[in-house]
Each structure stands twice: as structure tokens, then as C-alpha cells.
Design goal:
The complex is a heterodimer of chains A (about 280) and B (about 290). With about 280 residues, chain A is an all-alpha fold. Chain A contains 15 helices and no strands. With about 290 residues, chain B is mostly helical. Classes of the chains: A mainly alpha (about 280), B mainly alpha (about 290). Chains A and B meet through helix 1, helix 2, helix 4, helix 5 and helix 6 of A and helix 1, helix 3, helix 4, helix 5 and helix 7 of B.
Amino acid sequence: MNFSDSKDRSHRLNNAGWLTTLGAWVLAIAWVLPLFYALWAAFHPAQYATSFSLTAPLTLENFSAAWQAAPFPRYFFNTIVLVLMILVMQLVLCTLAAYAFARYTFFGSSVLFSLMLVQLMVMPEILIVRNYQTLSSLGFVDTLFGIGLPYFASAFAIFLLRQTFKTIPKELVEAAQMEGASTLQILRHVYIPLAKPTYLAFSLVSISHHWNNFLWPLVVSNSQESRPLTVGLQVFSSADQGIDWSIISAATLLTAAPLLFGFLIFQRQFVQSFMRAGIK
Amino acid sequence: MTPTSSHVQAYLLLLPAFVFLVGFTHYPAIGTLIDSVMLALRGGRAPAFVGLDNYQAMIQDPVFWKSATNNLWFALATIPASMAISIVMALWVNEKIAGRQFLRMSYFLPTVMPMIAVANIWIFFYTPDYGLINQVLQLVGIKSQNFLGDPNLALMSVTIVAIWKEAGFFMIFYLAALQTLSPSFREAAQIEGASRWYFFWRIQWPLLMPTTIFVLVNALINSVRMVDHIFVMTNGGPNNASSLLLFYLYEVGFKFWDRGYASTLTVVLLAILAIAGLMQFFLLDRKTHYR
């Protein structure tokens, strides 16, 4: 009697009751409903877009219609180039800067560090007016390079990498110095390999952020040569009133598909990456 | 390695990143401040000191005030709602609960989808007569609402989308924090026979405070910069009923091409973000968070 009593109690704070479970599931279903709705509309003929019937025939026609109605292949190409370009530049520039902040003592380091942190609050998209001026004086308006440029240095990445670099034991560095390794060799062979989880975490966060970014690309791009998917989708779905829901749903899913699939396959890594990025 | 050469090395390592940081954050921020007092309203003449003319115009601009009050309501709704939902989500999926993996995935899903894409889906939800929400409303005998076309409902409708998009993202931070809490707290509470409610308010909530402040600052920043869905869903309408500050800034800067006034609006946004920054600086113990 006593035993089962204490057992009951020990489970009370750990296990969810049925009411909690019900609440959690209702919320979860509400949360994925928009996605299911889009899936329904995209995979069924247009006349079933708003009426739910189990006998509705499945079709892929909406996808092929969307694919042909706008230059989506080009938009995909643009987004992939843009996202990878930003990521590579961020990894290179921010590794160097983080290394300086983590392992060097130099005059003005704390002032420079604070100046760097300002970018966490003031993102380039807030300063669109002035950054657009800069871009047009450099002649990069309407280019993918121009869209990527303001994001090449990321305070977030520098901060994250610096935290990781600081946890790497000094002994490892000293051992490498004894071997006669230069500063950059130490970075390359000691720091970078040991920071792999942080690189993975930041890469997932960066890719999903820039895949989804909209306002700045909207301002900079004005031709299909430089338009990423998000802007392309906006142009497509607002262009003409005659496009039906099913096709817009299909286009919407196409836009989100690579990230969605990536998320479903690497769910654990995704969540852990965002968690890792969040713990400061 | 001599001290000087190590200094030089450090500066050389920082240089490439700082070229971009300064070029696209500090330089434009200062440039914006200067532009706001140098460029005449609606351009047209060479830059000359115009004093506070642009600010004067802003104070007299009803669309600015409409966007500012909309933004205030947007912030007052999205910040507490998304934070409260995210805590509940995190507490739920931190427990042993049936289908935990599915629940976590569902909550987090909106975070990985482009706002532009999900806004397109939400439009269908809100469509008069045929949209899912209106079909449900009509089922229970309420007449169909034009959610995005009605000035009284448009702001609320875009606010709900923002809460839906953000909550799962914040959940991650709470979940991470909950998982770092020592299990001995829970054991102690169990031995004392504490209720779940008591355990949350007296133990988990105070321990989560740094996370709450971090999330609060992020929610505040997001309430300024989350405008993508406005472009898709309402375009700020009807009659500016759902215009937010950053959206209005875009319109002034890139539709009316009024750089002086757009710079002035940017200064307002910078001031709001500076407050967010100072909040983080003073509320969070810097020693524990920026070591």
C-alpha cells in the first residue's frame, strides 16, 4: 500500500496525465494543420481544394503546372547558390574572427567584441535603405552576390564559435606549438576539428534562415536571374488572380520542400542544432 | 611570438569579418542617422541640413502612427502569447508523454518553413466562405468573416500567424534549458509531495529566468522584423489596418523612394532595437552569459 503510494507520487511529476496528453495532441494537430491543408490542396484536383472527400483522386498535375508556370528551376538554383555562398563565407570569416577573440589578447578586444555584438540586434534588413545605397554604389544591385554580401560576417557565428574555441584545452594547443605548428596550422588541425558539432549546428541554422529570408532579397533582386525562391513565390502568387489554390499550394510546398525533407530526415540534428545555438 | 606580432595577427584575423560588419551594420546605422537630418522630405534637392523636418513630418503622419500602434499591439500580443505557448510546449515534450517525437516535430515544423510560404497557406485558411476557418464557423452557425479584408480583423489575423510561426522556435530554447536542470530538483519535489503547479512556479520558472529574458529579447526583436507575411496576406491593408513599422519603412523607401523619410523611420526602429539590446545587457548577468 505504502509502496504503491510512493510509486504513484514519483510518477506524478514525470508522466503526463491523459488531460495533458490530450491538450498536447490537440495543439500539435492545430500546429500541423496548415501543412496538411496545403498537402491536401496540392495533391488533389482543384475542385477538391476546399471540400474534403476520401474518394478525391490524387494527382501530381498541380506540381507540374506550378513548375511550368514560373521559372522555379531558376529560382531553386539561385537559392541554392545564395545559401551556399553565404554559408561558406560565414564559416571562413567567422572562424578567423572567433579564433582571434578566443585565443588572442590584444588592445581593444572587448570594445571590438561589443561592436560585433551590435549586429545581433541590428540585422542588415533593418537598414535596408542605406544598405541598398551601398550596394548600388558598388554596382551589385540585382545580383546574388549583392543579396549575400551583408550576411557574410555573422555576429552570431563569431559568438558561437568563440564560445566553443574557448572550451578547447590549452594543453592541446601547447602540444601543437611544441611540434612547431604555426598559428593557422593550430587553427586548422586543433580547433576546427574539435568544433565540428558547432559548425554543424550553425550551418543548419544559417541554411534555414537564408533559405527563408525574404525582405532584403525582395529589395535587391528585380529580375529572375537573381530572384531566390521566396521572392519568386511571392511574385508568382501575387501576379495574377486567375491562379488557383491547388497550384499555389503546390508551389508553396515546392519552395519549402528541401528544408521540410531535410528536417524530417535529420529531425534530431535540427532540433539539437537549434538548441545548441540557443544555449549561450 | 612577440607581443606586437600577436597583436597584428589578431587584427589581421578580425579584419575580413569587420569589413562586412562595419560596412553593413555600423556604417549604415550612422549613415541613417545623418540622412534623417540631411535629406529633404521627398528628395528633389541636394543634401543640406534640414534639422528635424523629417521628424516633424513623421509626427504629423497618420500612417506612421497607425503602423506604430499596430506594431505595438502586434508586439503586445505576439510576445506574451508565443512565450506562454512555447513554455507549455517545452514542459509537455520534456515529460514522458505519448508520441513525444511527433509532438516535438509538429511544434517545431513552422520554424523551418519560409514565412512567405506559410503565409500563402494561411490565406486559404482565412478566405471568406470557403476557407477552413470560415467553414468551421458556418458549421456552428456564425456567418463567414472576411478576416484579411476587414479592418477590425486584419491585424489580429496576421498576429495569429506570427504566434504560430514563433512559438515552436522559442520552445527549443526552453526545452534546452529544462534539460540542463538537475533531476535532483524534481526528486526533491517528489519527496515533498509538491504538485505539478507548485513545482513549476517555485522551481522551474525561477530557474528558467535567464532563458525567459533571452527569449523575451528575441521576441521583441522579432516583433519589429517579422513582416514577411504582411506582404503576402494583406499588403498592409485594408487602409493600413495591418501595416507594421518595417513594412511601412519598405513602402516609403522602395515604393515612394523617399530616402530622407525612410531614414527617419529607420531611426525609430534602431531606437526600439537599442532598447532591446540594453534590456539584454542589464537584465542578464553578463558574467554568466558572455564569458
